[in-house]
């Protein structure tokens, strides 16, 4: 089983981002959202590493993050964290969405 380092990095960024939001602003919402997204993406990374065609969970999670953080980025205009997560989510959607066509 080869590790999908992109997926694990994406999970780590989301998890740590939620933790940073909590530590800097005391935002429980950031902590819960970051931990939830990071955990879902960590599970998805494990699934994709075991079977590169098992992309459902990572696609659903990436789509939700893209829509949520994309709307926050458009409203607030701040790159961190909304813009960064939007870009990583878009890359993830392209990367794993392209595997659906070859399935």
Secondary-structure map with pairings?
Elements: H1 5-25, H2 28-50, H3 56-76, H4 79-101
Family: Belongs to the TMEM14 family.
Protein name: Transmembrane protein 14C
Main location: membrane
Summarize the structure.
By secondary structure, this protein is mainly alpha-helical. Helices cover 85% and strands 0% of the residues.
Q: How much helicity do the residues have?
A: over 70%
* Nearest-integer average pLDDT: 95
What is the β-strand count?
0
Distance between the termini: 19 Å
Q: Can you tell me the number of structural domains?
A: 1
**Rg, alpha carbons:** 14 Å
What fraction strand?
under 5%
Largest sheet: none
- The structure class reads mainly alpha
Give an account of the 3D structure:
By secondary structure, this protein is mainly α. The chain has one domain (5-101). The chain has four helices and no strands. The protein has helices at 5-25, 28-50, 56-76, 79-101. Helix 1 packs antiparallel against helix 2. The mean pLDDT is 95.
Which terms summarize this structure?
103 residues, 4 helices, 85% helix, globular, transmembrane, TMEM14, Transmembrane protein 14C, TMEM14_sf, transmembrane helix
């Amino acid at each position: 089983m080869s590790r999908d380092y992109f997926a694990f990095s994406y999970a780590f960024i989301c998890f740590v981002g939620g933790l940073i939001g909590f530590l800097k602003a005391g935002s429980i919402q950031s902590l819960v959202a970051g931990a939830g997204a990071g955990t879902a993406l960590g599970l998805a990374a494990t699934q994709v590493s075991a079977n590169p065609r098992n992309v459902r969970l990572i696609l659903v999670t990436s789509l939700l993050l893209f829509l949520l953080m994309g709307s926050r980025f458009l409203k607030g205009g701040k790159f961190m964290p909304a813009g960064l997560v939007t870009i990583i989510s878009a890359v993830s959607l392209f990367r794993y969405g392209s595997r659906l066509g070859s399935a």
